Structure formats: C-alpha cells, structure tokens
Amino acid sequence: MRKIVALLAMLVLALALAGCGTEKSETAEKPSAPASAGSKVLVVYFSRADENTGVGYIEKGNTCILAEMIAEKTKADIFEIKPAKSYPKEYKPATELAKQEKENNARPEIVGQLPDVQKYDVIFLGYPIWWGDLPMAVYTFLEKENFSGKTIIPFCTHEGSGISGTEGYIAETTKAKVLDGLEMRGSVAQNSQDKAKEEVMEWLKKLGY
C-alpha cells in the first residue's frame, strides 16, 4: 500500500513539474518587443520616388508609404533621410550610382537637422534594399547618431531579396538592440495599400502597438 501511495505521489509531482515546464516554454516563445505604453517612438526612413522596378514612375516612395503608416499608428515623430545630391530619376542610372556607392563604401552627405535620438526609446528604421544592403545614406545617418541603449525595429521594401540580413548590419553599426524587421515588396506597398496596411498593423500588434 505504501508503495502505491509513493508511486502516486511521484506521478503527481512529475505532472506538476511538466506543467511548469510547459508554462515557461510558452512564455519564452512570446516575441521580445518594447512596451508601447510610455515609450517615445521615432520613425526614420529613406525612400526614393521617381522610376522604380515593378511600379514605374511614382510620386511617393514605397518605403515612405510604410513609414507614414507606422508613424500614424504608433503616434511617432518622423524623420526622412535625404541625400544632399538626389539620385537620377530613371531607374537604371539610379541603380548604377547606388552600386558604385556600395562598392566604394561611400557615405553620401545627408541634409536637414538630425533628430535628437536620445529623446527616444524606440526607433523604427525604414529603407529599400539596394544591392542586398542598406542604401549608403542610411549608414551615414546611423554613424552620426548614438544608439546606445536604444531599440531599433527595421522595415524594408524590396522586389524579391527580402530583408537581406540588414538587421545584422544595423546591429553591428549601432550596437543597439535590433528586433526582427518587416519586409514587404515595394509593388505591394505602392499598388495594394489596403493589403500593405493590414500587414503593417498585424506586425505592429505583435510588437505591442
């Protein structure tokens, strides 16, 4: 009888421990994101209008569209990274210049008064993928600021390359905490804005916004 009671006690204990282990696992799987309540948010983006692949000539850049959606939802301040020298309006010459800048590891001059990053807890960083990388003007911005203790959340537009490992490049450059980013085809952001907004809102919801 004593052996039966002991075995039952061990079974109950084992089930209890298994239950605790499951609860910890579920908690660990929740996405790691900053709490939106009380955090000061900035949306920074680089975007190019004119002729783009998949969408032709456009008045507002694909990444700009996403940046405005994010800023509106998070009630964030917004800053556009603008190069001092504009890129050619035609797509092919613009890509050739972007490739040359990447090969030279250039840091194009940017214009406008830079935001005081120290005022913000979270920075959403948006950009198109150019030659598998950030546009070089984005590096210019990142290297001018101090992101110590900040959280950066990337978002990008592309036409097939995805986010191309740029989250790692941002982390290496800034030493900030970088969360998993949002990637979206530029043609979706430009031509299917209801669908794009739905995807952006779902992403922000997972982040706690």
Mind explaining what this structure looks like?
The chain is α/β, with parallel strands linked by helices and 209 residues long. The chain folds into 2 domains: 30 residues; 177 residues, 3-Layer(aba) Sandwich (Rossmann fold). It is 44% helix and 19% strand. It contains 7 helices and 10 strands. The strands form 3 sheets. Strands 1, 4, 7, 8, 9 and 10 form a 6-stranded parallel sheet that branches. Strands 2-3 form a two-stranded antiparallel ribbon. A two-stranded antiparallel ribbon has the order 5-6. Helix 2 crosses helix 7. It is globular.
**What name is given to the CATH topology of the largest domain?**
Rossmann fold
Structural class: alpha/beta
Helix and strand element order: HEEEHEEHEEHEHEEHH
Strands, total number: 10
Shape: globular
CATH level 4 superfamily of the largest domain: Flavodoxin domain
User: In angstroms, what separates the terminal alpha carbons?
Assistant: 57 Å
DSSP helix count?
7
- What fraction of the residues are assigned to beta strands by DSSP? 15-25%
Biggest sheet layout: 6 strands, parallel
CATH architecture of the largest domain: 3-Layer(aba) Sandwich
Would you kindly provide a brief summary of this structure?
With 209 residues, this protein is α/β, with parallel strands linked by helices.
Can you lay out the helices and strands and say which pair or pack?
Blueprint: H1 2-28, E1 41-45, E2 50-52, E3 56-58, H2 62-74, E4 77-80, E5 82-83, H3 91-103, E6 110-111, E7 122-128, H4 136-144, E8 151-158, H5 166-174, E9 177-178, E10 182-185, H6 186-191, H7 193-207
Parallel strand pairs: 1-4, 1-7, 7-8, 8-9, 8-10
Antiparallel strand pairs: 2-3, 5-6
Helix pairs in contact: 2-7
